[in-house]
Amino acid sequence: MKLFVNDEEKHIEKDALLLHDLLLENGVENPDTVVVQLNGEFVEKGSYRKTYAKENDKVDFLYFVGGGRYERFNY
To answer: What is the pLDDT along the chain (75 residues), one digit of tens a residue?
Structure first.
């Protein structure tokens, strides 16, 4: 089947693939740290092991990264 993962076309030798397995196949070591959109809709993390990506689906992996700068002021 053909899928679009993060806007990149991928070909997979299956008719459907669990989102959890798709994450692992794309190098995501801990699927719980990623938010997934399937065809523009957010998927609950608890559903990754029961939601399938199918032919021509668009899947996006979203990562949230913290950052910034902390300064301590002594007055």
So the answer is: 999 999 999 999 999 999 999 999 999 988 888 999 999 999 999 999 999 999 999 999 998 777 767 667 666
* All domains of the chain in start order, with CATH: 2-62 (3.10.20.30)
d(CA 21, CA 64): 21
Angle at 52 between CA 47 and CA 56, to 5 degrees: 135
